[in-house]
C-alpha cells in the first residue's frame, strides 16, 4: 500500500498543529452516515490515543438508529440540541477537523459556527472539489471513504500499532457503509490490505455488518415491501426508476431516522437497471424533499444530483434536496431521467 497521502512537510505541520492545540473539535456533515461517524470517531480515537488530546465530536443533527451501537457514540454532541454550548466551543477552539464533507454548506445549521470559528482547520475528505478553507487539505476523491483516509493517515503517522479495537471498529464501519458492504467503489486492493490490518485489532466484522444492516424494526421491513410493491415506478426503456415516500407513508410505518437507508439500492437489483432515485418528504419541514440517487457502472449520478437536485456526491451514490412538494419532486425526477436518457438507454 502506498504510504504517503500527504507530504512529509504537511505531516510535520499536522503534528505541530495537534500538539499546539488545546481545544480540538471533530465535525462531519448533517444527516451523518456510517462513514461520517466512523471517520470522525476514528480520528478522535487517534487524537486521544496517540496525542493525549480530548477532542469533542460535534455533529450537526440526529444520526440514524442503526449507528447507535458505535463505540463512543454516546459522547457525540449534537449541535441542534446544544447550540449555545457548541457555538461557544467553536469560538474558543484551536483546531477543527472536518471529516467527510467538501463544503461547509454540508453541515447545514452548523455552517455559521464553523465558518466564523477562528480555529485552524484540517479537511479529511473524499468528495470532489474540496472547498473548505483549511491549513491542510487531505482530499482524495478516489478513496472509498473518509474512514479509509483516516486509516491511511494513521498508517503514515506510524501510530496504527497503538490504536484500539474501537478505532478499528469505527474505520471498518465507515469503509463498509460507503461501499455498500464492499459491493461498489471497492476494487482497490489497498482496501483489503487495510481490512486485514483492522482484523488484527480483533474486530468482529460480521457483527459490525449485522449491527448496520440487520438492525431494523419490523415496520422498516414492511416499509421496504410496501415501497417495492406499491411505490416503485420503473422506466424499463431507460433502465431507471424512482419512488416517493410521503409523510403519510412514513407515519404509517413509524419511520425513524435511518429507516430509508438502503431502500434506494434495491431497484438496482433489476437486471440491466442503471439508475434509482428515492424522493422522501421531510418528516417535519414543509416543502423539503430529500433525494438519494444510486447508479451502476459509469452513470454519473453526482452530475444528475448537481443539475437537478441541488446536491452532489460520488459517481454511483449521490444525494441532494428539493424545496418543493413531493408531486413537484416527481416531475423533477422524470425530467432528470429524460435529460439523461441517452446515457441510460445505451
Ligand atoms: P445518501 O443518498 O446516502 O444521502 O448520500 C449518498 C452520497 O451522496 C453520500 O456519500 C453523500 O456524501 C453524498 N451527498 C448526499 N447529499 C449531498 C448533497 O446535498 N451534496 C453533496 N455534495 N453530496 C451529497
Ligand atoms: Mn463518505
Using brief descriptors, characterize the structure shown.
346 residues, alpha/beta, inorganic pyrophosphatase (n-terminal core), 6-stranded parallel β-sheet, 6-stranded mixed β-sheet, binds guanosine-5'-monophosphate, binds manganese (II) ion
Would you write up a description of this structure?
The chain is an alpha/beta fold. The chain has 2 domains: about 10-215, inorganic pyrophosphatase (n-terminal core) (Alpha-Beta Complex), CATH 3.90.1640; about 220-345, Diaminopimelate Epimerase, Chain A, domain 1. It has 13 helices and 12 strands. The protein has helices spanning about 10-20, 35-50, 85-90, 110-115, 145-155, 165-180, 190-200, 205-215, 220-230, 245-250, 300-310, 325-340, 340-345, and strands at about 25, 55-60, 75-80, 95-100, 120-125, 135-140, 235, 240-245, 275-280, 290-295, 310-315, 315-320. The strands form 2 sheets. It has a 6-stranded parallel beta sheet with strand order 3-2-1-4-5-6, sandwiched between helices. A 6-stranded mixed beta sheet has the order 7-8-9-10-12-11. Helix 10 links the parallel strand 8 (about 240-245) and strand 9 (about 275-280). Helix 2 packs parallel to helix 5 (about 145-155), helix 5 packs across helix 6 (about 165-180) and helix 6 crosses helix 8 (about 205-215). It is globular. The model has no long low-confidence stretch (mean pLDDT about 95). The site of guanosine-5'-monophosphate has 10 residues, from strand 11 and strand 12.
